Amino acid sequence: MTSLPPPARAFASDNAAGAHPAVLEAVTRANDGHVLAYGDDPHTRECEGRFRDLFGAPVETLLTFNGTGANVLALASMLGPAEAVVCTDWAHIAVDETGAPERVLGSKLIDLTTTDGKLRPDQLRELEHLRGVQHHAQPGVVSITQSTELGGLYTVDEIAELCDVAHSMEMTVHLDGARIANATAALGGGVETLRAFTIDAGVDVVSFGGTKNGLLGGEAVVYLDPTLARSARYLRKQVTQLPSKMRFIAAQFNALLDRDLWIRSAEHANAMARLLHQLTLDVPGIEYDAPPAVNSVFPCLPPDAIEPLRAWCFFWDWDVSRHQVRWMTAWDTTDDDVRTFAEGVRHILAGCN
Ligand SMILES: Cc1ncc(COP(=O)(O)O)c(C=O)c1O
Prior knowledge:
By secondary structure, this protein is of the alpha/beta class. Helix content is 41%, strand content 13%. The protein has 14 helices and ten strands. It has helices spanning 21-30, 42-55, 67-78, 92-95, 100-105, 121-125, 156-168, 180-186, 191-197, 232-238, 246-257, 261-280, 303-312, 335-352, and strands at residues 60-64, 83-88, 109-112, 138-145, 172-177, 205-209, 219-223, 296-297, 316-317, 325-328. The strands form two sheets. A seven-stranded mixed sheet has the order 1-7-6-5-4-2-3, with helices on both faces. It has a three-stranded antiparallel sheet with strand order 8-10-9, covered by helices on one side. Bound molecules: pyridoxal-5'-phosphate. The site of pyridoxal-5'-phosphate has 9 residues, from helix 3.
């Protein structure tokens, strides 16, 4: 144990962080008076315009309550009869949504084995034998996650090649962007970066994350191919993701998208992860596979150190077989939080060696 007080903010998850003050202010401003419900309001119209500006195209945007719902809505809009979703065995839709896509969509998930949470074009090509055979669910949608569930990144070229192969096999491409802001920041930081790995690369529909990046709660399904949004409004209601007081989700996104707050917040979270990695890299007993690409680090720790460290400042296990844990930063993590945490790590591990 250490007598050092723990950091004000722990490293459990970006979901553990509060909402950004600019978001809270926007919600308070939007609270004024009455507006029509279900998206027929000026905040939602502004939000739809902001997403069109962001992607530089006539995209259709539908706001939802949460990420699981955004993914289910996106996939519901994209899947045809008897079609399956192709994803990785690490995909949030496959392992962390309690089977919601299978239950709600009634569709098969083909979750392909990967070591790093990234789908490869050859894995798609290998599904060719399923196509046109009446005994197999037809691969209809490819779903990738950017940044990945393992804190990794696809390059622009990797996504473009996956899209090319998917489209050549008559599949459409969904991108689960619960942490799309962290990916955008890590790959260069500008709107051009976002467009490069999404609309320009050929992605058809994006689940655009907000909650992990400073919203109280809310995600957006952005139809980069607006023809796929044809039935989306009805499907959103059917999958229970139509917010009546839509203005509050829209107002949050309007604040997040204003003057690149979404990128600045994510870049800050990423920078805090880099600092944490740097300050703990030489702590005796810690081993890292790789430096962080976005806002999480995955150290392997001496087994005896994990519980005392967690009791001092909470975090989640990752790969228990390797004594690997996850430390995650957020938009509000401070330099001081990181330095305090790194010092505590050093003390506690020294006591366990
Ligand atoms: C990759 C990914 N997709 C989607 C989500 C959204 O999940 P939720 O339904 O909890 O908002 C998460 C949250 O952890 C996630 O990590």
